[in-house]
């Protein structure tokens, strides 16, 4: 029998830990594990491949199940709240915090307090890795807008990959939006974090608060959505994304994180992903308003459903994974609907087969049937371009620059990090243009190609290699440019 892939979840900063607490509660319920003490009813084994995300403590019927989790923050309040609401579920040694916080400043998370806490965090991560039979991957949940979520997350991802280059690391990054903003320096923090996510993470799945706010407002009918509402949407997607790692069955083979990323990342420089979830009915109405398979698939690919403020159908899909879960009354209907949808997608000629489908019979907590779309789509450049434009508005006036300069960053470093983000945007623009041009040539007849709305990358610019030739922040810090 094949070994189950063990996945470790690291959550960093306020948003990361709030989402992780919600995610672990959902995952416990799906596996039949009590989210307050880690036990199961009558000492039965949990459902599914529980060892993918849990370690077992004790033998026989008295055993309990501990999440493979490390939760970190530079201030204590969120970790204290997690402790208060999760009973004895988590190992207390895996809940790590300091007292000061990062004050919304990437430099404190990356250069200051983050460096002080890093040895303790790495010791806990190493301990979790040692407890695994077969490490399948590490998921890091964090927001790029806060100082801890941007700076400390960059530091941790770099340290993990340096020590364990063979373990795939997926960053689940919440990108900021003025609609739900709490920190005026969010564009700075996000652009600085992008450099580490681009150079070091194996893939980065973005959750764009701008889009999530609109989804909660339009689809769930919430007048002014709260952070908790947005976190619930993210939890739904993460539970769906990991279901194929946590359950296998008649129609299902386990899809490891490594396998998923191999399918979704056609070349290392293009590893920023977006997702969508269906049905987007409010969880409390889901059993009364079930969608057909065909409607769910149409909704999944609709521009207004994606968890990123962009228009995927206007860009190019480089690769796609559709993960379906729930009772599959008619697999043929789903397969046909997906095949029809695939025909209408703006795919890229040089990656003809990148369309992966996974089935998990175990339904989620809120929906009898649900689907998650993971897409590597060139429209991600539009989301990153928006954040860079907000960065430029601040940086042109050197607004709040002293926050970063006083913590040891230099103007040259900041300009280099902004250039790195621009190279990332351009690599997606080049991919979009090459996909569109080749489509025209292969058809053998002229076809009007819509010009890119974004500023054009130089026609001769090749997609940059993994590090894009960009200087890493660590190099800059070490060289004291």
Question: What would you say this structure looks like, in words?
Answer:
A hairpin with a 6-residue loop joins strand 2 and strand 3 (64-67). Helix 12 (380-396) runs antiparallel to helix 14 (411-443). It contains 15 helices and twelve strands. It is globular and about 60 Å long. The chain has helices at 13-31, 77-85, 106-110, 113-130, 147-163, 186-199, 209-218, 227-246, 257-264, 293-300, 331-344, 380-396, 401-405, 411-443, 473-479; strands at 6-12, 54-57, 64-67, 69-73, 95-97, 135-143, 169-175, 203-208, 272-278, 317-326, 355-360, 369-377. The chain is an alpha/beta fold.
List the helices and strands and how they pair.
Elements: E1 6-12, H1 13-31, E2 54-57, E3 64-67, E4 69-73, H2 77-85, E5 95-97, H3 106-110, H4 113-130, E6 135-143, H5 147-163, E7 169-175, H6 186-199, E8 203-208, H7 209-218, H8 227-246, H9 257-264, E9 272-278, H10 293-300, E10 317-326, H11 331-344, E11 355-360, E12 369-377, H12 380-396, H13 401-405, H14 411-443, H15 473-479
Parallel strand pairs: 1-4, 1-6, 4-5, 6-7, 7-8, 8-9, 10-11
Antiparallel strand pairs: 2-3, 9-12, 10-12
Task: Summarize it.
With 481 residues, the protein is an alpha/beta fold. 42% of the residues lie in helices and 16% in strands. The strands form two sheets. A ten-stranded mixed β-sheet has the order 5-4-1-6-7-8-9-12-10-11, sandwiched between helices.
